[in-house]
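Me: I keep going back and forth on a fold encoding question. No explanation is needed for now; the record alone will do.

Assistant:
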Amino acid sequence: MLSLISLRIWILVGSSMGGWLMLHAAIARPDKVAALVGVAAAADHLVTTFKKLPIEAQKEIEEKGEWKFPTKHNEEGYYSVTYDFIREAENHCVLNSPIPITCPIRLIHGMKDSDVPWQISMQVADRVLSEDVDVILRKTGQHRMSEKEDTKLLVNTVDDLIDKLATLA
């Protein structure tokens, strides 16, 4: 592990929208990113979900300048997303072309995820240039992957990547 620290390389871990941001960080700094672990990575999910709305709903959101994106993860029952944010997010979609990431990637996704379909992790795996990609599907896993066994899987996945990278250094 000391060799990893001295090289100042990162293993990025991102969950949900953080998984999408993790992909962008790896694209921007390939020299610094040694590996990625995505948990229910929501690549392009906000944009895709918005575009699936009826045209009338999209126009209403544009006029109001805000989308109350439904969620069960907070008391309000929604996340407030500005229309400007949605428009900017359209400029950062990654699933329409090859993703220029070549480091090891592990994607963990729950098949009972009602927020981000597990198929998105499969799309990411298909689009990245890396040949070292594993997709781990948890049959009973939810979006937050917060059960004890889910957490163990995440920790073990990161540990395995550290061991792999340490032998390469």
In short: Residues 1-6 have pLDDT under 50 and may be disordered. The first strand starts at residue 10 and ends at 15. Residues 148-168 form the longest helix (21 residues). The two ends are 10 Å apart (CA to CA).
